[in-house]
TrEMBL record:
<dbReference type="InterPro" id="IPR016031">
    <property type="entry name" value="Trp_RNA-bd_attenuator-like_dom"/>
</dbReference>
<protein>
    <submittedName>
        <fullName>AIM24 family protein</fullName>
    </submittedName>
</protein>
<dbReference type="Pfam" id="PF01987">
    <property type="entry name" value="AIM24"/>
</dbReference>
<dbReference type="InterPro" id="IPR002838">
    <property type="entry name" value="AIM24"/>
</dbReference>
<dbReference type="InterPro" id="IPR036983">
    <property type="entry name" value="AIM24_sf"/>
</dbReference>
Length: 230
């Protein structure tokens, strides 16, 4: 009776499918993580929407909390460690999900957009190098390094831009992630609003150049930017 119900009324198209990948999309706004007892995952606290199998979660180890510094120094850790055998489904308020497989590479991610990462990956909170950014507060990202999977979110369908052919400029509030090793610089331009008596008069972009890519969301969500007092 249950199988007949699931296959009727068009519901069968929404059933979860095993892709064989460690992290995969179910639709555009949900990440499906295949967990085994030999491969734990760190996931954003509060991001779990469902799971099956024998899974459990716990706070991240103290060693990781120290590596993440002030981002993880509050009463509630931004990440949880999931262990066991089963399937974990993650989402973040309907945001689009992008899964990236690293092969001895590094990815710098806006901390608010980090949905999940393999526990075998190393990570640390680092300040973006270059001139002072964002009104002197500095720009901090979570740098993930090694071989494994990372899942990030975007407020809308993201675009992945190749920086190897030409320098690419991005609004910091629309920036989700980028491959490390890129040359990063700031650029200021006159805001259109200043021409009609409104606005601060200038806007700042980050310029990226080198072998790698940047992930940009179609939203300038200033509340997403991870800031830490320096």
């Amino acid at each position: 009776m249950q199988a007949q119900f699931l296959s009727g009324g068009g519901l069968d198209a929404y059933r979860a499918a095993d892709t064989g990948a460690r992290m995969s999309n179910h639709g555009t706004a949900m990440c499906r993580v295949a967990l085994t007892s030999a491969a734990d995952v760190y996931a954003k606290a509060g991001a779990m929407v469902a799971y099956d199998g024998f899974l459990q979660y716990e706070p991240v180890p103290q060693s990781l909390r120290r590596a993440l510094g002030e981002w993880a120094s509050g009463e509630r850790s931004p990440l949880l460690r999931w262990t066991g055998d089963g399937t974990l489904y993650l989402a973040d308020l309907g945001a689009d999900v992008l899964n990236v497989q690293l092969a001895e590479e590094s990815l710098s991610v806006n901390g608010a957009h980090l949905l999940a990462m393999d526990a075998t990956l190393g990570c640390a909170v680092e300040k973006v190098r270059g001139p002072a950014l964002l009104a002197g507060t500095g720009l901090y990202n979570v740098t993930v390094t090694g071989s494994g999977w990372v899942s990030v979110t975007s407020r809308g369908v993201p675009v992945v831009l190749d920086c190897s052919e030409t320098e690419t400029f991005v609004d910091p509030d629309a920036l989700v992630a980028w491959t490390t090793g890129l040359e990063v610089r700031t650029r200021r331009t006159v805001k259109v609003g200043s021409l009609i008596g409104r606005g601060s008069g200038e806007a700042m972009q980050l310029g990226f150049r080198g072998h790698g890519f940047v992930v940009v969301q179609p939203s300038e969500d200033t509340g997403d930017r991870l800031k830490i007092r320096g």
